[in-house]
Every structure is written in C-alpha cells, then in structure tokens.
Amino acid sequence: MGQFFEACMVICFGISWPVSIIKSVRSRTVKGKSLIFILFILVGYAFGIISKLVSGTITYVFIFYVLNFVMVSIDVGLYFRNRRLDKANEGK
Prior knowledge:
Blueprint: H1 2-27, H2 35-55, H3 60-90
C-alpha cells in the first residue's frame, strides 16, 4: 500500500511539470523562474531514483521518478534557452 501512496505523491508532483514546460515554451523568458529551485527538485528526483536502485525496490513507482526527472530536465534546458533569449532581447 505504501508504494501506491508514493506513486500518488510522485504523480501529483509530476502533473505540474508539463504545465511548467508549456509556460516556459510560450513565455520565452526566465522571469518568474528560479534555476536553484528547479535544480533542487532535479537533484531530489535523482536521489529518489538512486534510492530505488540501491534498495532494489524498483517497481512501477520508479517510472514516475524517471518521467519527472526527464520533465524537470526539459524545464532546465528551457530555462537556459529562455535566458539566452532574454539576453538577446536586452540588446535590442
């Protein structure tokens, strides 16, 4: 039963990342984003993945950790793209 609740937690957290990615793509700016915050979340998911691997408890929940890690990684990439766009727009 614990895995079910863990999966629910990770899914609930994961629902926000597609929204954040869409916002980053559409806004084309880093205004309102915190790289440090995003990186802490990315590291947290990495620790969750490592925990599953080290403990040998790789279940269906593992997939949600990986999916969230991928989505946060995409958001980090978009942060750097948008920062570059912000700098280019400052020069205009």
